[in-house]
Amino acid sequence: MAAHWETVVTRLVAERGAALTRYAALLCGDDEEARDLVQDALAATFGRLRNGFEVEQAEAYVRRAIANRFLDRARRRQRWQRIRPLVVPHERLDSGSTLTGAHLDMAARLERLSPRERACVVLRYYEDRSVDETAKELGIAPGSVKRYVSDAMAKLREQLATEETTQQEGA
Amino acid sequence: MDDDELRERLRAMPEPTTAIDVDAVVTDARRRRRPKVIGTGVAVGAACLAFLAPVVVPGLLGPDPVTSTLQEAGVAEQGDSGAEPEAPAPAATSEAPTSAEEAQPTDQADPAPTYYGDQGASGCPFTEADVLQPGLVLSFAAPPADGVTTLLVENQSSAAIVVRIGDVGVATYAGGVLAGLSVLDPASSLDGPVLRLAPGEVASLDVAVDLHPVGCGGSGGLGGITLPLVAIALGEDAVVQQRLALGTAP
């Protein structure tokens, strides 16, 4: 017979798996990486949660684990990117993304934000969390959340203005 | 772009096409749970061995010739259980610490680790030096009776502290000595939030608590005062130092 936590993880994936993957995809910008992020967060969370947790409680822990893992990976990636030009020749790869048009634009715009800015934007505007909830989720101060959101909005507006200017010049 | 437009654009992005492999998740989670189960089994086994050894070993060695001779001669033996009388607990471990500062080892010059409980023969898997974190005060806001509670993390030092919180368990004191500890693995459980605490700042976290401490082999048994035992990592990247930290009574 499956343990209680196994039943909970199966139910969580069946009921909320798509929402968790979408949340992770908005954070990291890549479907495959999002799936890895969610699976890793689920395994880590249920690797330590005791019995007695239900789906709703477990989902909150998994979401927090996803955000933390995303920021950890981004931090490691930034370190790698700093030294990458020294050891790897530049190459362009097809991301395999199926995004098109406006969706592709939005994904590209989000990609230009820093990981923390992106996490704050997703939590505030996709998950509809308050500033305090976002701060608690990411383990940072509410003031930092406001600053990251403000910086992100400024960057997004700047990108939009640049795109509009380019389009007008093209027309 | 205003707030509503951003919200709308984020929600309009398409659903990811990838699916979660629940079997892989369950297998991975089982693998992560196993070390704790093995650790608990080893610790319980060691505690049982320590408890039974004084009785079993003299029996296996056979009767003491002098005692046998006395028994054969009809001389009654007073209070022979085969076990040595227990040494009194050292002063450093006779009381539960009330704060991180008070709980520091009293003899800083002595490099030898001091074991809680039964002086190293116990099932307690780490030393006093392992579980102390000067300046960082951890406490439960409420008793973690149902396995979930709020952990209070206070920086009582004069400098800022960056700490990552991992697994949370309990240390139980009974009769003034450490009676049991949750088996936590600081190296593999540090995926919790990173806290940046200014001097005097207190953070609160909702945490799951391991409520199954392993006995340390002391005479007090499990129960009594329950303090938090937390896997932490210190430093900006949270990889500088990984250890366990013992909390204080609220």
Question: So how many helices of chain A?
Answer: 7
Please name the two chains that share the biggest interface, counting residues whose Cβ lies under 8 Å from a Cβ on the partner chain: A-B, 58 and 43 residues
Biggest sheet overview of chain B: 6 strands, antiparallel
Describe the oligomeric state of these chains in a short phrase: heterodimer
* Total domain units of chain B: 2
Gyration radius from CA atoms of chain A, angstroms: 18 Å
Arithmetic mean of pLDDT of chain B: 64
Overall helicity of chain B = 10-25%
Radius of gyration of chain B: 24 Å
| N to C succession of SSEs of chain B | HHHHEEEEEEEEE
Within the CATH hierarchy, at the fold level, what is the topology of the largest domain in chain B? Immunoglobulin-like
Structure description:
The complex is a heterodimer of chains A (about 170) and B (about 250). Chain A is an all-alpha fold and about 170 residues long. Chain A has helices spanning about 5-30, 30-45, 55-85, 100-110, 115-125, 130-140, 140-170. Chain A is elongated, with a radius of gyration of 18 Å. The model of chain A has no long low-confidence stretch (mean pLDDT about 80). Chain B folds into two domains: about 15-70; about 120-245, Immunoglobulin-like (Sandwich), CATH 2.60.40. Chain B has helices at about 5-10, 20-60, 65-70, 130, and strands spanning about 135-140, 150-155, 160-175, 175-180, 195, 200-210, 215, 225-235, 240-245. In chain B, strands 3, 4, 5, 7, 8 and 9 form a six-stranded antiparallel beta sheet that branches. A three-stranded antiparallel beta sheet of chain B has the order 1-2-6, with no helix packed on it. The chains are: A mainly alpha (about 170), B alpha+beta (about 250). At the A-B interface, helix 1, helix 2, helix 3, helix 4 and helix 5 of A face helix 1, helix 2 and strand 5 of B.
Can you tag this structure with a few keywords?
heterodimer, A: 171 residues, mainly alpha, 2 domains, B: 250 residues, Immunoglobulin-like, 9 strands, flat
